[in-house]
Design a protein that fits this description.
Its main location: cytoplasm. The protein is α/β, with parallel strands linked by helices. It has 13 helices and 18 strands.
Length: 378
């Protein structure tokens, strides 16, 4: 079986590439390990930036659909001290340039924009090998294979395509996230709801941070960030929800009750999400017929840009292929020469300019994205 463009991974980057190719009349097939679009929660909120993510959506001719997803008021941000003191409180006046959407809704408009059959679900990749002359064979867990003259790894942190280009693998960043949800917050968790406000909350201290966001349906989605080695987390039995909750809450002993409520009042069992990264400036020599985008190419610690960069990668690769329809190598060279410095520059600004700044705000959202993205290709 041969296809024009083979994309591994139906995340935001891979789907943006497929959509931009479709806009330019170039067929592609996306292979996704998940069984269906609804197989797994797609994570929480994303802020889509006017200087990268929105440019990608414009190239995909989906700006009208995107505007229909925007949740008003969610660009508001509060920074609290561990004692609950409000250190910063910024309202959403609609001029922030990073409107908020639910990640799953954004993925859905991309899926809906593609011809039926573009995404092949339940096709988990186990490996890929070069056949020569720019052609590659991809092997799936079901025993099937596909041969392609252009292979794009959009398959996230643990990419099965990356080994064709690089021997580098992600390393633990020294931080992990413990994720919780509080439902019907206004009535069932009023103190926590008041602390979070209408948008996002950051409560930072060295080694211990709490982030939270108000999602659709009066849901609070919270993330406790702890700087500890993986062995430290391995000693916590996350299969015992009550015990794990108590141990994580103990790490925030003395914090204001409206903040620790985001741990102790969770309506779901706490979930551990280790954070990984590739080396800053990760790049590879040009290999005919294959490239990477998004986390497969430049996985980083949360830096405010991951999901947006993945979408821009997809759009820019799609445009490069459309501009060089008869010369795949010229297209891939042009794409990579722009992508490498773009992603390296974004990684330099990990952590932003500190809480209370716009950079701190979108770094929060990329933490949320990272929680989802790091797990996708396990």
């Amino acid at each position: 079986m041969t296809t024009d463009v083979t994309i591994i991974g139906a995340g935001l980057g891979g789907l943006t590439l497929a959509r931009v190719l479709h806009v330019h009349g170039i067929p592609s097939t996306v292979y996704e390990a998940e069984a269906s679009p609804a197989a797994r929660s797609q994570g929480g909120m994303l802020d889509i930036h006017d200087y990268n993510g929105q440019l990608a959506l414009a190239a995909a001719d989906l700006m009208d659909e995107f505007r229909g997803l925007i949740l008003e008021g969610r660009q508001a941000m509060r920074v609290l001290g561990p004692d609950g003191t409000v250190l910063f409180d910024k309202a959403d006046d609609g001029t922030g340039g990073r409107p908020e959407v639910q990640r799953g809704d954004l993925r859905q408009i991309l899926l809906d924009s593609l011809p039926s059959g573009t995404v092949q679900w339940g096709r988990k990749v186990t490996g890929a090998r070069a056949l020569g002359e720019g052609r590659h064979e991809v092997t799936f867990a079901d025993g099937g294979t596909v041969v392609t003259s252009l292979l794009v790894g959009a398959d996230g942190a643990w990419s099965r395509v990356r080994p064709l280009l690089s021997t580098v693998t992600p390393e633990y960043t020294g931080k992990s996230v413990v994720e919780t949800y509080l439902f019907d917050a206004g009535t069932r968790h009023p103190a926590a709801a008041k602390a979070v406000g209408g948008g996002s909350l950051i409560a930072p201290t060295p080694g211990r941070e709490i982030f939270a966001h108000r999602e659709k349906g009066d849901t609070l989605h919270a993330y406790m960030v702890l700087s500890e080695p993986q062995d430290w987390f391995a000693a916590i039995d996350f299969a015992d929800a009550a015990a794990a909750t108590a141990q994580i809450a103990q790490e925030f002993d003395g914090w204001a009750p409206e903040l620790t409520a985001l741990i102790t009042e969770s309506d779901v069992a706490p979930v551990l999400r280790p954070l990984y990264a590739l080396p800053t400036g990760h790049r590879w020599d040009r290999v005919p017929g294959v490239t990477l985008l998004g986390d497969a190419a430049h996985l980083s610690a949360p830096n405010g840009e991951g999901a947006n960069l993945a979408m821009l990668d997809g759009a820019e690769l799609g445009k490069a292929l459309a501009a060089h329809p008869d010369d795949i190598e010229a297209a891939l060279t042009a794409y990579e020469q722009a992508m490498f410095p773009r992603s390296a520059e974004a990684a330099v600004f990990e952590g932003g300019e500190g809480p209370g700044t716009d950079s701190g705000n979108h770094a929060f959202h990329d933490l949320i994205a990272a929680v989802t993205r790091h797990e996708q290709s396990r």
